[in-house]
């Protein structure tokens, strides 16, 4: 064929490329810039439209006349029309008859999406077939006619020697690179970008020049390390970020890049931490907080670019399993909705912004601004900037619709149609798909005038989605709604396994992709929906259709899920079971879903993986009437189990206010069933959570009732628990004698029944009591017995540690919480006794263990004590940083007692180190407010009195 050079050149390049290896250095050798005159000629709007139209026509003709699906897919994947480099190549043809440049562009496109779906022969065939179609269309443009007609076989053959020399040069470079890669040691850091998730970029991305410029300038500046790119659904946040990364970011400037999409089913923040550390070749420590520290260290040593796509999915407002079905409407925002569900996400990004010496940067795309960066006094936190992504520009909208196949109509007519939908990118893609595929007037803008337009902007955007769906054949409607039933992206193989008409599946999928309703990620071979489309397509199924589809999908996952959890090592191993649970819930089989969760997910998620947030997301789906009512399960014992598990998970992720009402519902069900044995446990559980949120009166009441029930049913163990926990509550009320009596009673029972753990935490409460009594003496400025209290606190904490060790000897698996509590209190006691080295040793152990098991409820106490230690060591900067981190934990989690203590320390710091009485007063007033708790005798007495004394000094 006349284009044999094109095919031969592509063949030599392809044979030199390994499937998994990318060669961006090659492209730098080719200069595609046209001359100034060419650029000026190309810049004409009408000429640009003519050329883009010609390219689109060539693609359309190629697709129609080459029926082989794989060959047709080649062109579909090329998507040459909007490519800036391709435009330069076409422009260059007016001055330089050099088909090699077109060849280079095609090779670049192959490299971007190359995988094992097609053979080299099929690629060569496709490349050889496409160029004649392009020429046929370009020759219709006057400026190209003479040039294109001169491109005959004889002229092309003259370029052979030059072309082959270029190929040999590239092959030599490749050999050197491959040799160097073979010599690389495995332990060396990787030199590639990491895309655990990719974006199914649709064709013809257009415009956004101002946004690209903004992103380029942000990446180049040293002021802001975190950029929040915020927009409502459908404005193209992910597409913009993906296009910018792949076209604008220089790998030499940022040799390490991580694209993490929180939209994916396996993309939890937990997995982000571990996968990032693996990519950076850093040993993964135990505990998320320690992992955060390792990533922060890596950020200081090298330039890493993080793309955190869909960050709203780890904010409370979007963290449920229903988030993937979020439509155009935004959820009503309530208190704490913009908090991260995982506090370590907040810690990582906050420290990235404010820590000195950080070389790395992060781009976050999100529907909602996280609260931790939100402006105070109109300013975002140091090191962070936000920009809102709005509609695309008018001229870009016209170019986009032209590229999408809207051939007939003036620019003004197209612009008016786009204006109707507020230049909303998703709506314009759907509009273009509707116009391009119209049966009567394909590609004519007049089709837009037949679409009913009424209501406000959001209603019109919703309506174009409805029109796009309604025009589909029934089988494609059903396929789209079926795909919407999945939690996230789904593979082609899975769709083939569940398809009713397997022969027509690929044709239907191509149709949905062309209409802009479906994403296809060529790298992962997965199909996905925009959340707005997912929401709409899912709602178009009737209740019975949804349930039937989910049941069919459940049967599919029953067949492929592992028989047992014996070989489960990661969350990904559990995905088939999680998908089965999802479809079982959606099919309305809630009781079956609960049994599946209890038997196949609960223990692994809770004890092995510590995936507390996932537990919350999955179990919330059983609460169809809201969490203020029991889950909609038939058996009340199943309701109680579900409520208790959800409440415990909330407690572990630092949401005690959500845990308390759930525990109370559990106790109501147990009381109704007359289950006194489990009720004493439930009363103790809720009391412990009530204590940390300052509900002191309720905590005391529930513990006294628990003790009474234990006496009634002769349950000695839980009677001991009740006395010890009640003693802890009374310590905070400054009832020293009563607390001593309760602790002694608890200790006697535990010693009688040889309960080492009970003895251990009772001695820890004794240490706390002595520390509070010493603190009270300082407030009163009377130090008669202060030293005695300190020594008693040390001795009590040492005994608690000894008992933790004793229990460990008898039980192979230690209770890490016992060690954490003992080390914390022992370190605190040493610090109050001015034994700072011993204090530092024990507090460091406490913090390390705490972070290994993500024990959020104790971390603020330990950080505060470390802040006090640093203050005593004159390291005031470290003291302020640790106290600020503790304050963040208490504020986002609602830990009232801890919050009062942290605010008191920061008040002291502001007064003594910053000489800022106004700030000190604010902290002291907040401390007093928190310590008030239930008021009267139910105040957190020692903190309340300390706040009063400080405020008196500040008058």
Instruction: Report the β-strand fraction as a percent range.
Output: under 5%
Largest sheet, described in full? 5 strands, parallel
Unreliable segments of 5+ consecutive residues: 1-44, 70-83, 85-120, 146-190
Radius of gyration (Å) = 33 Å
- How many alpha or pi helices? 43
Give the strand tally: 8
Helix content: 55-70%
- Span from first to last CA? 94 Å
* SS-based class: mainly alpha
The main sheet orders its strands as: 2-3-4-1-5
| Shape field | globular
Q: What value does the average pLDDT take?
A: 78
What does this structure look like?
The chain has 955 residues and is mainly α. Strand 3, helix 16 (343-354) and strand 4 form a beta-alpha-beta unit. The N and C termini lie far apart (94 Å). The model is unreliable at 1-44, 70-83, 85-120 and 146-190 (pLDDT under 50).
């Amino acid at each position: 064929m006349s284009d044999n050079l094109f095919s031969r050149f592509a063949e030599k390049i392809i044979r030199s490329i390994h499937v998994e290896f990318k060669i961006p250095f090659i492209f730098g050798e080719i200069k595609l810039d046209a001359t100034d005159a060419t650029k000026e000629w190309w810049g004409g709007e009408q000429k640009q439209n003519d050329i883009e139209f010609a390219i689109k026509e060539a693609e359309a003709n190629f697709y129609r006349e080459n029926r082989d699906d794989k060959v047709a897919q080649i062109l579909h994947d090329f998507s040459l029309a909007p490519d800036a480099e391709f435009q330069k190549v076409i422009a260059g043809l007016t001055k330089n008859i050099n088909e090699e440049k077109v060849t280079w562009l095609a090779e670049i496109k192959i490299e971007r999406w190359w995988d094992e779906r097609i053979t080299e022969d099929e690629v060569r065939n496709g490349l050889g077939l496409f160029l004649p179609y392009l020429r046929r269309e370009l020759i219709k443009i006057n400026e190209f006619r003479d040039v294109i007609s001169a491109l005959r076989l004889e002229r092309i053959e003259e370029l052979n020697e030059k072309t082959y020399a270029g190929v040999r040069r590239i092959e030599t470079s490749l050999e050197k690179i491959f040799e160097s890669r073979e010599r690389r040691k495995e332990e060396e850091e990787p030199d590639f970008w990491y895309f655990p998730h990719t974006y199914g970029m649709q064709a013809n991305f257009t415009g956004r020049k101002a946004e690209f410029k903004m992103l380029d300038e942000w990446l180049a500046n040293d002021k802001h390390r975190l950029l929040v790119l915020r927009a409502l659904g459908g404005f193209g946040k992910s597409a913009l970020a993906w296009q910018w990364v792949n076209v604008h970011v220089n790998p030499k400037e940022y040799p390490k890049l991580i694209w993490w999409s929180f939209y994916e089913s396996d993309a939890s923040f937990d997995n982000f931490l571990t996968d990032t550390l693996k990519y950076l070749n850093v040993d993964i420590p135990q505990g998320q907080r320690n992992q955060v520290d390792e990533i922060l260290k890596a950020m200081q040593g090298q330039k890493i670019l993080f793309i955190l796509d869909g960050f709203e999915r780890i904010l409370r407002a979007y963290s449920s399993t229903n988030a993937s079905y979020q439509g155009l409407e935004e959820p009503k925002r309530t208190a704490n909705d913009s908090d991260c569900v995982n506090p370590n996400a907040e810690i990582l990004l906050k420290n990235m912004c404010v820590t000195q010496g950080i070389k790395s940067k992060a781009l976050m795309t999100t529907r909602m601004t996280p609260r931790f960066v939100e402006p105070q006094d109109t300013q975002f936190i140091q090191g962070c900037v936000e920009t809102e992504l709005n509609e695309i520009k008018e001229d870009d909208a016209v170019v986009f619709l032209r590229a999408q196949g809207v051939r007939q109509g003036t620019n003004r007519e197209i612009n008016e149609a786009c204006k109707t939908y507020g230049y909303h990118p998703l709506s314009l893609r759907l509009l273009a798909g509707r116009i391009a595929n119209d049966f009567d007037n394909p590609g004519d803008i007049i089709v837009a005038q037949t679409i009913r337009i009424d209501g406000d902007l959001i209603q019109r955007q919703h309506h174009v989605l409805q029109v796009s769906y309604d025009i589909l054949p029934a089988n494609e409607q059903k396929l789209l709604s079926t795909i919407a039933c999945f939690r996230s992206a789904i593979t082609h193989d899975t769709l083939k396994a569940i398809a009713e008409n397997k022969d027509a599946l690929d044709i239907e999928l191509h149709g949905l992709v062309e209409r802009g309703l479906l994403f296809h990620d060529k790298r992962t071979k997965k199909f996905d929906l925009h959340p707005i489309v997912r929401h709409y397509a899912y709602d178009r199924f009737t209740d019975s259709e949804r349930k039937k589809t989910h049941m069919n999908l459940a049967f599919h996952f029953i067949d492929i899920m592992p028989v047992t959890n014996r070989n489960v090592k990661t969350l990904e191993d559990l995905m088939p079971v999680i998908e089965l649970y999802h479809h079982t819930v959606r099919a309305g089989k809630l009781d079956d879903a609960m049994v599946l969760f209890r038997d196949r997910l609960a223990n692994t998620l809770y004890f092995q993986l510590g995936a507390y947030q996932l537990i919350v997301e999955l179990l919330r789906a059983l609460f169809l009437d809201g969490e203020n009512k029991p889950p909609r399960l038939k058996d009340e014992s199943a309701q109680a189990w579900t409520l208790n598990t959800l409440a415990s998970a909330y407690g572990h992720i630092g949401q005690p206010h959500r845990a308390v009402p759930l525990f109370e519902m559990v106790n109501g069900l147990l009381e109704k069933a007359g289950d006194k044995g489990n009720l004493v446990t439930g009363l103790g559980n809720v009391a412990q959570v009530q204590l940390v949120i300052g509900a002191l009166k309720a905590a005391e009441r529930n513990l006294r009732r628990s003790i009474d029930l234990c006496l009634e049913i002769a349950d000695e163990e839980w009677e001991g628990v009740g006395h010890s926990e009640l003693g802890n509550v009374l310590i905070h009320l400054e009832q020293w004698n009563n607390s001593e009596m309760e602790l002694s009673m608890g200790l006697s029972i535990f010693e009688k029944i040889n309960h080492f753990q009970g003895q251990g935490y009772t001695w820890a409460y004794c240490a706390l009591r002595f520390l509070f009594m010493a603190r009270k003496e300082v407030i009163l400025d009377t130090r008669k017995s202060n030293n005695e209290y300190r020594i008693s606190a040390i001795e009590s904490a040492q005994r608690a540690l000894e008992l933790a060790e004793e229990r460990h000897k008898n039980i192979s698996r230690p209770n890490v919480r016992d060690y954490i509590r003992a080390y914390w209190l022992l370190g605190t006691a040493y610090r109050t006794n001015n034994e700072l080295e011993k204090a530092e040793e024990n507090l460091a152990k406490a913090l390390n263990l705490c972070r290994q098991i993500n024990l959020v409820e104790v971390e603020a106490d330990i950080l505060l004590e470390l802040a006090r230690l640093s203050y005593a060591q004159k390291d005031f900067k470290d003291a302020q940083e640790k106290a600020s981190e503790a304050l963040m934990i208490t504020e986002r989690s609602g830990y009232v007692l801890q919050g009062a203590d942290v605010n008191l320390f920061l008040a002291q710091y502001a007064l003594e180190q910053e000489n800022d009485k106004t700030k000190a007063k604010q902290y002291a007033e907040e401390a007093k407010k928190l310590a008030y708790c239930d008021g009267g005798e139910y105040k957190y007495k020692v903190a309340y009195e300390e706040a009063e004394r400080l405020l008196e000094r500040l008058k």
